[in-house]
Amino acid sequence: MDSKEIIPEQNDGIQSNTESEIELSGEVEAKSFFETVKKRLLKINEWHHFAGTGTADFQLTDEFGNSIDRLPQKGDHFKIDIPGPGSVTGEGNDWVKVEEITEKEDCFGIRVRPATNPMNERNDVAHFFDEAATSTFIVKRIKNKVIAGVYGRNEKANTDTEKTVDKIRNAAIATGAISGFSKLQWKSLVNGLVKKT
Predict the structure, then answer these.
(1) What are the two backbone dihedrals, phi and then psi, of residue 40, each rounded to the nearest 5 degrees?
(2) CA–CA distance, 76 with 61 (Å, rounded to integer)
(3) Are 56 and 181 contacting, i.e. CB atoms less than 8 angstroms apart?
(4) Which of 11, 8, 24 is nearest to 106 (CA)?
(5) Which backbone phi and psi does 35 adopt, to 5 degrees?
(6) pTM for the full predicted model
(7) Residue 14, number of CB atoms within 10 A of its CB
């Protein structure tokens, strides 16, 4: 699979690419470690552990917002507790929906998009980016290298919300995310995913 198959085109707003790689002694070890890193990526509820202190906490939920501990599926959500003030619409959290999971030999990806909070009746997106934005998480192997990456596309502040406090909060956090917070968050995660323990 070419990574471009799951990463949307960049049309508007900001894009970001964050990667970390490790070079193994040979392809056999790299193939084995690729499987290890893929399993880590699939443990959404443990991302905070891989990324370390001061990073966002991720919880996998079903389509109704119920916390679950299994492999992610299309239609599931991530409930994200970022450091700092949470959104009113998201009941203190930011929400994304899993819209694509794809796998081919030596490449695995999950794409998510900002979503409404499945725990309430509001229709506005409960995330600091608007619904045009995506984040794509990819693990791939190229020869004896294993690479973990997060690719943000079309990232713009979500100011189309019912709550004025959320408009202000989203604009401030999106500006911070665009200027570096997201990069630090994702760099911590991808570094943790490919770390040899």
Answers:
(1) -65, -45
(2) 6
(3) no
(4) 24
(5) -65, -40
(6) 0.91
(7) 18
